[in-house]
Amino acid sequence: MTADAPLLRHVQCLRPSGGLARMAYWEWPCESGAADAPVLVCVHGLSRQGRDFDVLAQAMRAHYRVICPDVMGRGESDWLADPAGYQIPFYVADMVTLVARLDVAQLDWVGTSMGGLIGMGLGAQPNSPIRRLVLNDVGPALEFDALQRIGAYLGKPLRFASEQEGAQYMASISAGFGPHTPEQWAALSRPMLRQDSDGFRLHYDPKIAVPFSGITPALATAGEQQLWAAYDALHGPVLLLRGAESDLLSKPTAQAMAERGPRARVHEIAGVGHAPMLVQADQVAIVKEFLLA
Length: 293
What we know:
Layout: E1 7-14, E2 20-28, E3 39-43, H1 54-60, E4 65-69, H2 88-102, E5 107-112, H3 114-123, E6 130-136, H4 144-153, H5 163-172, H6 182-189, E7 193-196, E8 199-202, H7 209-213, H8 217-232, E9 238-243, H9 251-259, E10 265-269, H10 281-291
């Protein structure tokens, strides 16, 4: 491992339909080398992967052992035979297995979008290991128009002639991430692509779109009630980041999260929609200050 590259590890997770699947995770050891260093788990959004957090991990590894999983079906993790396993409750169960592997009683959590929902699900459990929780542009109420926007591109069997073509495509569907330099965007894009005999494809199983495509306004409303119950059950400090132009997390929802349950500390990030990528220095500083407070 070099200073700017993490270790790739795997953990076996039991699937609800039986059998095992491997979930990959990227580990950035604490710079101190301490075996008992605090643990920070960073979990990505719906169609992303654990290398999204390279910049944040390098900023935090002076204080933490940083763990960045590839949620099942993404990155270096296994693809599932049954796409019904691509849902939040099963991801929470996978994270319980990961925490057991890490052998820690307590950890901090940064979750972007889907990763935040997984963190809420784990954090709401009795005796949850989560001490401090960062929810990155996600809350219990998800705007249905934004879900439809994401569903319009999720799971398409796309092929690209080059990494540059793939990066350009991802930029076209990722305006909400906010401005990045060409170097930053290349670093964010490269782990999202896999090369094969036909060129390049996206890193994830297209079948992750199957459960997502079944979301209706009625199901979204029913899910919202469960998510609010989970949010209200959270213990410990919560930081809510909101892209000021987000179409997934509304201002009223963010305000409600500041007023109920754990009463999240809300920080809006100007010039960004869904979702801040935690690459820019000011975004990293916000997270770092909260986690180390």
